[in-house]
Design goal:
Blueprint lengths: L2 E8 L7 E7 L6 E11 L1 H8 L9 E2 L3 E9 L11 E4 L9 H4 L25 E3 L6 E2 L9 E5 L3 E4 L5 H5 L4 H12 L7 E5 L3 H12 L4 E5 L3 H9 L4 E3 L2 H11 L5 E6 L9 H5 L2 E9 L14 H6 L3 E4 L7 H13 L9 E5 L4 H9 L5 E5 L6
Parallel strand pairs: 4-8, 11-12, 11-14, 12-13, 14-15, 15-16, 17-18
Antiparallel strand pairs: 1-2, 1-4, 2-7, 3-5, 3-9, 3-18, 5-6, 6-10
Helix pairs in contact: 4-5
């Protein structure tokens, strides 16, 4: 039985989200249907609008951060029961491919299908418009809808006492940022760290660096309000630009600069890479977590200095996280007060307010906005 519901769709590039009626099919083998309760508004979904992340076609159903309740099970599902609370992981984790077995579940082979729109179970579409047109869900999820059908590899069971709006952010932003510091960046006690861009992912990276024992954590962001928030989350100093930060970082580190630089800006441009490496220490690591346009292959980089100072330029997807392991661990840290997720949620919106929410994000008014679904949505 198909579920008629609504979703936030993109029908062409550089146009606002449109709330339209859609139909979601029953879960098939190894799939579950979820009644969504909350969805995070990540910058990556804005990249869908600009074309920076190209999907397999239009219309696109946005949203890749979310949490909800399992409502129905497909054949062969054994890890979930109806009524379970779950977080949706934007990268599936099958547990069986070479990457998963090698301990890099964030590079699961299922990830190759994330932008195609077809379900991994049988390569058909679960979501259609009312006139039968296939809909391409962001990373095979589409959390900008009150209902979803997803493969069990994309869901992670969580404790039922965790607020859905908090849980939703652990589908992408929290593990991506936290892991960028603690896994991809491997921040060690006493190291000096710079976080470039302190939105949702950057604030999680900042907390990861603090918890890992960093000595100085320098936050860099052009928005004054975000710099103020960064200090509340544990940054030792905050600056508007790398250029403004340069002398202060140099003085604080005896000009050794930062062993780790975590780049979590909303959009990465190749021309800025050498700037970020300029505040990276000898033998240090610059972690690129923010997304650039997939068509951008031009990078400004002093290759001689990269070699002579033995610096590392490290890409990072999902913070190097193992979704099935790390999402529950991070939420357990939240429960005992070690990880502050609740204060990262700046505003809540209805699905109908999605364009307002993204305007607030782009204009620097949010660390993270969250869509909350109500009984009226269901």
């Amino acid at each position: 039985m198909k579920v008629k519901t609504k979703g936030a769709l993109l029908r062409e590039l550089n146009q606002p989200w449109q709330i339209e009626e859609i139909e979601i099919g029953d879960p098939k083998a190894h799939e579950i249907r979820i009644r969504m309760e909350a969805a995070g508004m990540c910058h990556s979904d804005h990249h869908l609008m600009t074309g920076g992340i190209p999907m397999g076609g239009f219309p696109i159903l946005g949203g890749h951060e979310g949490a909800g309740v399992v409502e129905a099970l497909g054949e062969g599902v054994t890890d979930f029961e109806v009524g379970d609370h779950v977080v949706l992981s934007f990268i599936p984790s099958c547990g069986k491919c070479k990457s998963c077995k090698a301990g890099v579940a964030n590079l699961c082979d299922f990830g190759a299908m994330l932008l195609q729109g077809e379900a991994v179970s049988d390569h058909t579409f679960r979501i259609h418009t009312t006139d039968g047109q296939p809909v391409y869900p962001m990373t095979l999820l589409g959390t900008f809808s009150p209902y979803m059908v997803v493969h069990e590899a994309s869901a992670v069971k969580i404790d039922k006492d965790i607020p859905f709006e908090v849980a939703a952010l652990c589908g992408c932003g929290i593990p991506t940022g936290y892991g960028s510091s603690t896994r991809s960046g491997d921040v060690r006690p006493g190291e000096d760290v710079a976080i470039v861009g302190v939105g949702g992912v950057g604030t999680a990276a900042l907390q990861g660096a603090v918890i890992a024992g960093a000595r100085n954590v320098f936050a860099i962001d052009p928005v004054e309000w975000k710099r103020e928030q960064a200090l509340k989350f544990g940054a030792t100093q905050a600056f508007a630009t790398v250029e403004e930060a340069m002398n202060e970082i140099g003085n604080a580190t005896e000009w050794g600069m930062c062993q780790k630089v975590i780049v979590t800006v909303g959009e990465v441009f190749g021309k800025d890479v050498d700037t970020w490496l300029s505040i990276t220490a000898k033998n240090g690591t610059c972690v690129l977590t923010g997304m650039g346009n997939m068509m951008d292959n031009q990078v400004t980089l002093n290759l001689a200095m990269l070699t002579l100072l033995q610096k590392n330029l490290q890409g990072s997807i999902f913070g190097g996280a193992n979704p099935k392991l790390d999402i529950p661990l991070l939420l357990s840290m939240y429960k005992v007060g070690k990880l502050n997720i609740a204060d990262m949620i700046t505003r809540e919106y209805t699905l109908d307010q999605i364009n307002e929410g993204y305007t607030d994000m782009l204009e620097g008014r949010n660390i993270r906005g969250v869509i909350r679904y109500t009984d009226a949505d269901h």
